[in-house]
Amino acid sequence: MSEVKVSILDGYLDEPSCLGVPPYIAPHIRYTYGALKDAGLKNKDINYLTIDQFRDNEERLISQLHNSEFVIIIAGTTVPGRYLGGQPISLQEIEEIAKRLDQAQVILSGPIINCSLEVKFIDQLAKEVPGLTIYQELTNTNLHNKLESSELIDRWAVLGAEVTNEHPNFPHLVCELETFRGCPRESHCSFCSEGFKEVIYQRSVEGVIKEVKNLAKLGNQYFRLGCQTDLLLYQAKQVGDKLVPNPTAIEKLYSGIREVAPNLKVLHMDNVNPATIADFTDEAAQILETIAKYNTAGDVAAFGLESADPKVLKANNIGTNKKKTMQAIKMMNEASGYREDGVPKLLPGINLLHGLQGESKKTMELNFNFLKKILDSDLLVRRINIRQVNPLKDYEAVHGYSKHDFKEYKEKVNEEINKPMLKRLFPVETILKEVIIEEVKGKLSFGRQLGTYPILVGVPGQREIGEILDVKVIDHGYRSITGLPWPFNINQAGVAELEALPGIGKKRAMRIFMKKDIKDLEHLNEILDYSYDIEKLKELVVFD
Ligand code: SF4
User: Fold this and answer.
1) Which of 242, 288, 294, 408 could form a cystine bridge with 335, CB 3.0-4.6 A?
2) Domain count of the chain?
């Protein structure tokens, strides 16, 4: 087998139930790599590269792809968005690359194949378990005849962990972990792509733990149980026509992960259907307690309410409602809203979707009122995600209002909900650890922590991309905060950083910058001619 060479081109996938744009690595990539190893290929025969690496060095890398017998492109974004850590491959790029690879067999894999898209120059679509198509090509055998999908995945997940070491973000890479695939609801929300998935499975607790063990052994420390539609229904039990959450399985999963990865820095999660919490309060309370016991702080469970308009919920067969979602928000606040290291342990996020059937101008009002009620009830939600529905197959987006109305609504949410909520979540002086700089724009650098829905942090001054620093919060935007590096040594700070200190302004910043040997707060007060309320800086600056 060693003469066969295979390339995996990571075009990044991003689904509501799975992230794969850096700093995340999607499980599909690891499964595919594991399938290649299982088929007998050595690491030297497998070439893994990301679409951003390809773009940066196209001429050299196209020849690497040329020299492969098979090129597997893994792609698929079903959520439109702007990404900081990388730009997913476009359909046009897939076709252009595939067209140039006239000697290699090009296999397209990932959620992209669930969309009814015509993609030219592709030899095969991998519709099955990730990795199965290439495994069969290489071995002429069908392991699937002997093993269930979940067994295949458990096996390949362990073998494929090694690819993380090839990722350009390693070791600052979040390993997205899958617990199950598909939506457990019998009838699906009409706008959602989960119902199109032909292969669905539940993974075993042991399988996920073994995978984490191997990932941790290879130096990975950041994990997100992000790849499933509702973590509370992992290993749920069928009772009559209902799926009842299984607290024992989730306790085993979390405690097992902690045992095999004792040095992990992040253990976060993603989606939960709020109706599961509201419908099974006892089981949900136990599970929330378990998650908060084993996770790391700053965790978020995204709740897909999608709309607070009952007409929209009905028209789209959405399985939750305002009342259940509010109840779930309250329960989660009570169970896990406490702070650890200064940040809330586990909070809900709210997803709202627009362009849904049944929408009208009233929908925006109902959504806003729902959010206002959360704020007025002194509850915390970590983020409110308002996005547009992605047209899928025959689902047609509708807009019962003008673009102008929608813009106004979003501005109102930003001003009246997001900003006060951020102040409540991350009060001034909160310390956020390990913020990684990802972008520099003018005199501001932007970074995020590794984890689930990390807050965007603007750091005054031009920092190095990839630099890691702790920051102290000094100000709040709508969806981001401003933070100064912590500890902030006033004698070593640049003018842009000094200017960002509350109420300092340009002239005072210059005066401080020129001085450089300030001893203490009193000395600083003297340098500023007692023209400034020096108490404001008491907790923000150090002098050596
Ligand atoms: S509950 Fe609805 S939106 Fe969520 S995964 Fe299932 S079908 Fe999709």
Assistant:
1) 288
2) 3
The per-residue pLDDT for range 393-407, each reduced to its tens digit, is 678 888 888 999 999
Distance between CA atoms of residues 231 and 236, nearest Å: 10
Is ligand 1 within 6 A of the CB of residue 353? no
Would the CB of 230 count as within 6 Å of ligand 1? no
Ligand 1 centre distance from Cα of residue 487 (Å): 44
Q: How far is the CA of 192 from the centre of ligand 1 (A)?
A: 6
* Final residue before a domain boundary, out of 425, 442, 457: 425
Query: In what side-by-side order are the strands of the sheet with 222-227?
Result: 24-25, 174-178, 222-227, 266-269
Return the residue matching tokens 């992209």: 112
72 CA to centre of own chain: 24
Q: For ligand 1, say whether the CB of 185 is within 6 Å of any of its atoms.
A: yes
Which residues lie across from 388 on neighbouring strands? 354
- Give tens-digit pLDDT for 6-55: 999 999 998 888 999 999 999 999 999 999 999 999 999 999 999 999 99
Q: Confirm if 58 and 66 have CB atoms less than 8 A apart.
A: no
Q: Please, are residues 270 and 297 in contact by the beta-carbon 8 Å criterion?
A: no
Q: What is the CATH number of the domain that holds 5?
A: 3.40.50
Cα–Cα distance for residue pair 495/497, rounded to 1 Å: 5
Residue 341: which CATH number? 3.30.750.200
220: CB partners within 8 A, 6+ apart: 161, 164, 170, 171, 173, 175, 261
